[in-house]
Amino acid sequence: MRHPPKSQAPEFLDMRGLEPREFAGLLAAVRRTNRWYGGRTLVLRHLERFAAVIPGRPLVIVDVATASADIPAAIVRWARTRGLAVRVVALDLHPDILRVARRLTAGLPEVLLVRADAFALPLADRSADVVLNALALHHFSFDEAVRVLREIARVARGGFVVNDVLRSWPAYLGALADTWLLGRNRLARHDGPLSVRRSFTWEEFGALARAADLDGVEIRRHRLQRAVLVRWPDGRDGR
Ligand SMILES: C[S@@+](CC[C@H](N)C(=O)[O-])C[C@H]1O[C@@H](n2cnc3c(N)ncnc32)[C@H](O)[C@@H]1O
Description:
single chain, alpha/beta, Rossmann fold, binds S-adenosylmethionine
């Protein structure tokens, strides 16, 4: 089989009312993934290019499905070291997750946390310089992911950076090894490998972009088994 078989089994991350410490451990595992396997760096590298070509300050960034808002927090630290003004609107639907995000972003006034559904973002058309969406498309079916991508494109004035794990054997085996050998959280051991099986292949990411009519989108393959869908500001390819 070329790819791990597709799964539609539910993830613990989408459930409500789980034991708080165990659930916090699952969120910590997601943050660790971003830290260790390039999730944060991927976003910051792309933002460098947006910041260079988008005139006017502050840079308005929307992060859709933000989880514990570690990427918005990293963006604020990155911006502060560059003397760049940013406003990050960080959205998620899960109330328990937003509670953790509030705690972790206390003291970062640049981050505004809002409970919102990715299918109906409470934002005007073309209201954000950059819309981000990381590690989240796999929470949706193909048709749902198309709807989310259309919402992202609607809100993005400058462009967007969407990325998620590829449904590939290296990603699957990596998630198994990471969660079983390096982590101890029972929920992460379930959700890590399952996230890969819920996700999309390289060809399917292309099909998603076409189905969502994403004009001018570039699809890149990140070396750590992620697909990245980027639309650069003003149609520039950012290279
Ligand atoms: C794996 S986390 C990704 C978190 C973060 N973007 C990152 O890179 O670490 C997926 C997030 O999607 C959120 N989510 C799932 N369905 C959603 C929806 N319909 N609207 C908004 N957020 C949603 C979940 O609550 C969860 O926080």
